[in-house]
Amino acid sequence: MISVQEAQSIISNNIQPLSFETISLENAGNRVIARDITATFPMPRFNNSAMDGFAVCAVDTEGADKLSPVILKMAGVSSAGTPSDIILKPGLCAQCMTGAAIPDGADAIVIVENTSGFSDSGTVQIFQEAKIGEHIRRQGEEIQEGDVLISRGTCITAGEIGILATFGYEKVSVMKKPKVAIFVTGSELIEPGNKIKTGQIYNSNLYMFAELAEKSGVEVVMREVIKDDKDSLRRLLSEALQICDVIISSGGVSMGRFDYVREVYKKLGVQEHFWKVAQKPGKPLFFGTAESTLIFGLPGNPVSSFICYVEYVHPVMQDLQQKKRDPKHQAILAENFPVESNKHRYLFGRSWIDSKGKLLCSPASKIGSHMLTASLESNCILESPPGKQGLKAGDEITINPLNWRNIE
Ligand code: AMP
Ligand code: MG
Description:
With 408 residues, the chain is an alpha/beta fold. It has helices spanning 4-13, 158-166, 205-215, 230-243, 261-267, 302-320, and strands at residues 20-24, 37-38, 48-49, 53-56, 70-78, 92-96, 108-111, 123-126, 136-137, 148-150, 171-175, 179-185, 189-190, 201-202, 219-226, 246-250, 271-275, 279-280, 286-290, 293-298, 329-333, 344-353, 359-363, 380-384, 396-401. It has a six-stranded mixed sheet with strand order 15-12-16-20-19-17, sandwiched between helices. Strands 7-4-6-5-8 form a five-stranded mixed sheet, with no helix packed on it. It has a five-stranded mixed barrel with strand order 21-23-22-24-25. Helix 3 (205-215) packs parallel to helix 6. The protein is elongated and about 95 Å long. The mean pLDDT is 97.
């Protein structure tokens, strides 16, 4: 049996990132930038006003205050979207709105609050001295033309979408989403909504996988519930091998008489890279490849399926899209953690920051691999490599945050 580290490195060695595609900005959220995005022009693109006010020659306002205002002649109006061709000479000023181009000759803005206000009269009283450059957004002060705005590998969120639009990008090159098949196997499974008979259980894993896959930003192209029956398994798995980048199945990979999944994968030409990892839960984890398709056979117990997805499958989905992997953290145990002597131990758990700013955590009290209710109050997975002794409260442990829940 191989270790968790060996299993992880075998998987990593078999990942080939996907190619890219060009999509419209509207659909770009949560996708990964495939090529550096550069500035097509400087930002600001032209000198413009940061405030509503009057464009002036600063020197004209020397000594201005409320009691002895400076009076300037109005040369015109510059508003956002309608630049003017005014050229300010000494003694002149122009009404200039936020975002509007600064008229030639002006070198400062006096905000409207420090003047007698906007009006149609031919003059305005200035109540405060202006400093050169005041309230002017200078061309290129934020970004120079040609600067890299967003590097490849960045996940697109609201800020990136805003910047792409700011620089006029209507389309963007992003990494393709992995095409994924999710299967659950088991003759005992029935779908929620049906009346349950003795010996049956409701299928939970398929719904869980679909939600986890959504969080990984992938496209689920097949989802099936399959009986423990070689023919149906063969038919659906072979179809998935034709069209998917990743196949995820649950159940049927243990030592049971009807656990056919591994056998069928192998008969279909899947190369087995490992089966069984020294870990709890999730020992019978299967990993194989067929050309560039990656195949994960996860054990059927819901906690095993969930944890194996988060620990093994989700990082692969990120690697395929060249997304940075979600970080793990070190936290201090607030309770003891039951380390295994020869297996890597994963448990659902809760993490929080205490009043001194320390990151604490504690494992869920329900530890069976069939006890999915442990996930309900959890916001992370705690993990410890094999060891002779258990970890005690106060010891450090690694946690993997469930990125849809907050650390409290
Ligand atoms: P297996 O890995 O097929 O031996 O299944 C291990 C345990 O997980 C059994 O108790 C199964 O009934 C249960 N199980 C398998 N698949 C699912 C599923 N899709 N939803 C809920 N439980 C499952
Ligand atoms: Mg089964």
